[in-house]
């Protein structure tokens, strides 16, 4: 079977069920792909899938790699380099994150409009890859037209979506109440341990990006709330059908 995907999807914590929507699929385990890291996090299956979604050829990462797993940024973002070589033009990224905006509810979908990078290592540190300039512009890290299309689809289908700034941190600890408040003061609406490195490398490679955070817990408010990885997965599972509906329709209309 031949496939020529122009769109790729990265499925974050607890969001792998979208892969079941992909038809005519075949997959490769990360451990069987040369130079690919292996995901070590519960809820990340660790396979690269090719097939169709919304009637279009796509590729999907079921499970991603994180800086906190001990990988360096070049390893974390290696799949994005592969996507570029395969001709990917649009990247959909998803993640589970903690909400810091008082208007958010657990299970909300937050369309990412921008990000703040708190990772201690930059994915473009070192010799410049020829996919982009030494000093890439990041004024539109998340494509405005794709955001407008997602808003239109969400309105049609009566799906509640929020907009916000994603704050990327190294983890693996969940945030303290003081950290939540700090990130909120600095302009973040949600915080998580992924996405930012991949988006930076995608933009450096000329790939357009659309991002969604599933708000799986809340922090930074007057009453601290404990959170576990299991609770994050459960909240992500509940929001998956809505996220899948929007992404499928976006790809279909591309």
UniProtKB/TrEMBL annotation:
Keywords associated with the record: Glycosyltransferase, Transferase
EC number: 2.4.2.1
Pathway note: Purine metabolism; purine nucleoside salvage
Keyword Glycosyltransferase in record: yes
The Nucleoside phosphorylase domain, residue ranges: 7-252
CDD domains referenced in this protein's UniProt entry, alphabetically: PNP-EcPNPII_like
Signal sequence range: none
Pfam families, per database record: PNP_UDP_1
InterPro entries documented for this protein: Nucleoside_phosphorylase_d, Nucleoside_phosphorylase_sf, Pur_Nuc_Pase_Ino/Guo-sp, Purine_phosphorylase
Domain of life: Bacteria
Membership in a protein family: Belongs to the PNP/MTAP phosphorylase family.
Name by which UniProt lists this protein: purine-nucleoside phosphorylase
């Amino acid at each position: 079977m031949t496939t020529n995907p122009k769109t790729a999807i990265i499925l974050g914590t607890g969001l792998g069920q979208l892969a079941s929507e992909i038809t005519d699929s075949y997959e490769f385990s990360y451990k069987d792909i040369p130079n690919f890291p292996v995901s070590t996090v519960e809820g990340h299956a660790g396979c690269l899938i090719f097939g169709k979604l919304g009637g279009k050829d796509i590729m999907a990462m079921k499970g991603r790699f994180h800086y906190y797993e001990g990988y360096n940024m070049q390893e974390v973002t290696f799949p994005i380099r592969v996507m570029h070589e395969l001709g990917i033009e649009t990247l959909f990224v998803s993640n589970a994150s903690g909400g810091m905006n008082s208007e958010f509810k657990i299970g909300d979908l937050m369309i990412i409009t921008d990000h703040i990078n708190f990772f201690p290592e930059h994915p473009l540190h070192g010799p410049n890859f020829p996919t982009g300039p030494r000093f890439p512009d990041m004024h539109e890290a998340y494509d405005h037209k794709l955001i407008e299309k997602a808003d239109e689809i969400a309105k049609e289908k009566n799906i509640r979506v929020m907009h916000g700034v994603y704050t990327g941190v190294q983890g693996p600890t969940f945030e303290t109440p003081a950290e939540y408040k700090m990130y909120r003061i600095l302009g973040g609406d949600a915080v998580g341990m992924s996405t930012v490195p991949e988006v930076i490398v995608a933009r450096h490679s000329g790939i357009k990006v659309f991002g969604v955070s599933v708000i799986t817990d809340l922090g930074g408010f007057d009453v601290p709330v404990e959170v576990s990885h299991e609770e994050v997965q459960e909240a992500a599972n509940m929001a998956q059908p809505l996220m899948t509906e929007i992404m499928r329709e976006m790809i279909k209309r591309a």
